[in-house]
Specification:
alpha+beta; Jelly Rolls; eight-stranded antiparallel beta sheet; 24 strands
């Protein structure tokens, strides 16, 4: 009988399904965790063997601009109704425009020294430039309301269905490098197995890279001009999406580009070197095992990028939506790129690498352990490039009795603002402590599920 993509649903599997989440363990409706500034939270710490099957997240991170009329300590048990949208005159906040890159997701398998995943939270799910936009693919989706889409720091629902097996342990952490707390909802769904994973199991990995700007030799010459059509038979100056050693297969990437020239940011060929493409003297053979014909071609578009989102390729953010900005993805699910020793995935930034745009990418792949060394640029080097904002208006002066009353009102406002922020800080401290306790409770609950499943399997 021929195989079917959903054939596994027709056969029983020895496994135990479970979940850890941010549910309010007091039984109330405040189902999110608070991770204070410059701290981290363990979202899941699971004992294997098992596999993570699905991750869902949504979050918000807002900066208070003025004192609200409701004391923060009095709203400690309710859902964040006003903390998502301003009720005019009642509260005054705005989203932190850059928090998707200030917060990291870190995943470690089997007590490894290095994490397998170390990526800014937004970029991991395909939110490039900190601007969410709805899209659907085989591995990731983002769902954002229209008023939250295509704005820096907008809220959105994030999903990942990439299978993530683990033999001994899975540890998922949220690392907040922001000066503000982040409020995080999440589900982490997983299944437990009674037997050890096969020795040749490949583990999920992800890394983030950025070049701002890419080292272009002619950013002042228009794309597709005859003068930029130089010969490139080395790929030495390409933007590198992934360069790793081990055994496994590359399954794709997302690429965020901020184009500065105002023309077209593509025309760069993709070049992928594998295994024996790397010579003993440290150089690479030419041509590489995979050599493409253009940036849009690698992402399975043509004649530029189109506004679509398919299972294995598409545009998350199109330059027609926000001029100068784009985010695209290509997932090698049906056509993984295999390697036995080493792989380097790269693309020219403009033909012959002539453009000096801002490129950032997340690479996804599976490989055997140990995980390669994980590094990520410091926070200042991760922040997206944003258009300059308008200058704030300067208060006009008044005289006489009106000036005296204005002075009194300003003192009153500043005192109320100070009190509001003091109470907000205390609420954040309380919520942070509760989230830490719930994290510890989740770890114990997951251990109890593992123990009961083992007893049942042995019986």
């Amino acid at each position: 009988m021929p195989s079917h993509a959903l054939e596994h649903l027709t056969r029983p599997t020895r496994a135990r399904t479970a979940r850890v989440s941010s549910w309010d363990q007091r039984g109330r409706n405040q189902d999110y965790w608070t991770t204070p500034a410059h701290s981290s939270r363990v979202l899941a710490d699971l004992e294997g063997p098992g596999r993570i099957t699905h991750i869902w997240m949504t979050q918000f991170c807002r900066r208070t601009l003025g004192p609200g009329l409701i004391d923060p300590l009095e709203a400690d048990t309710v859902a964040p109704v006003m903390e998502i949208h301003n009720a005019l005159g009642v509260n005054w906040e705005e989203p932190d425009a850059d928090y998707y890159r200030k917060v990291l997701i870190r995943i470690t398998w089997d007590d490894e020294d290095e994490p397998a995943v170390l990526v800014p939270l937004g970029d991991f799910f395909g939110i490039g430039h900190c601007m969410p936009n709805s899209y659907q693919s085989a591995l990731f989706t983002v769902s954002a309301k229209p008023e939250e889409s295509l704005i820096f720091g907008g809220s959105a629902a994030l999903n990942c269905w990439a299978p993530m097996p683990f033999n001994k342990r899975a540890r998922i952490e949220l690392v907040n490098e922001n000066d503000l707390p982040i409020q995080q909802y999440f589900y982490i769904d997983y299944e437990l197995f009674p037997d050890q994973l096969p020795k040749d199991t490949l583990y999920f990995h992800a890394r983030w890279s950025r070049s701002n700007p890419c080292g272009g030799w002619a950013p002042d010459i228009q794309t597709n001009s005859p003068e930029v059509n130089i010969v490139d038979l080395t790929g030495e100056d390409n933007y590198v999406i992934l360069d790793t050693e081990g055994k496994g297969h590359y399954v794709g990437c997302n690429l965020s580009v901020h184009h500065r020239q105002g023309s077209w940011w593509g025309e760069g060929n993709d070049m992928i070197w594998i295994d024996d493409d790397f010579l003993p003297n440290g150089s690479t053979s030419w041509p590489p095992s995979l050599h493409g014909t253009g940036t849009e071609d690698y992402f399975n578009h043509a004649w530029g990028m189109q506004k679509n989102a398919y299972l294995y390729h598409g545009a998350i953010l199109h330059e027609a939506d926000v001029p100068g900005y784009s985010v695209n993805y290509r997932f090698h699910v049906a056509d993984p790129i295999r390697f036995e020793d080493r792989i380097r995935v790269s693309i020219e930034h403009g033909h012959g690498n002539h453009l000096a745009d801002d490129w950032a990418s997340t690479a996804y792949w599976y490989q055997t352990l140990p995980s390669p060394r994980a590094t990520i640029p410091p926070l200042e080097q991760r922040l997206p490039v944003r258009p300059a904002g308008l200058p704030k208006p300067v208060p006009a002066t008044r005289s006489g009795a009106m000036a005296e009353e204005i002075a009194v009102m300003r003192e009153r406002y500043e005192a109320r603002f100070e009190r509001h922020m003091r109470h907000l800080e205390e609420r954040t401290r309380q919520r942070g402590e509760r989230s830490l306790q719930e994290s510890e409770a989740n770890i114990k609950q997951a251990a109890a599920v593992r123990r009961r499943y083992d007893e049942r399997a042995d019986g």
